[in-house]
Specification:
By secondary structure, the chain is mainly α. It has one domain. It is built from 15 helices and no strands.
Length: 259
Amino acid sequence: MAGFVKEDSIVRHIWGRSDTVLFIFAGASAEFALNKAVDWLYFTGKLPADPLGRLFSTVGYAKRIVFAPEAEAQQAIGRMRQIHGAVEQNRGSAIPDWAYRDVLYMLIFYSIASYELLERKLSEDEKEEVYNVFYRLGTGMGLKGLPTTYTTWLPDRETHLRSDLQQSGYTTDLFKQYKKHLGAFRFKVLKEGQKLIVPTAVRGMLQFNRYNWMASLIPLYKFSRRISLDRMIKRLMLPAAYTKQIRELDNIVNKRVGG
């Protein structure tokens, strides 16, 4: 049965490692805290109660779609539409189209940025392939007027960064919640990871300084993967509940590709 994403696609390589997914999560957790539509997830109460779990859930859903057969992926996309529709009905207003786009755009940007940080630079064709996968996901969600190619998407992404982000009370509260759920040390690790991967506009709004001790550790971490120490490092960096979720993300790959 054909997959939503081809088995040899660079997208499966990107989403096939939990450490790459962790950096996608780190970047998205920073940018999402600035999004003008973040109040929608405060409406349900799920985001402030468990912000990390909520973001892991979004990333996990995307990963399942990447490794799912076409029909199963389309069903999952349909369920996403239904879930958001129910929230809209309860609140009595519609989630703005640009808010859906922003989440989609985060997945595109951080997929590329995370892989390039931990692995290698992607070719233009590979970036186009990443974009195409999420373009199909977005159109399946009912988004209209998405740029049709990666190159035409780039200026639209910049427009969204300028118009859809702001520092707010939600930003401050979310970072407090991140610290509460991670603990002081792991929160520092998260912020250092965010500094490595977020775009300049996000870094400026969050007032991140330029110093980043994690940058010098990336080569060491890459070596740790070669000698199978990376799992131990990830266990140290994450609370037990989230370590389990990362293991589950790895299991998605194992089930789909027989790894």
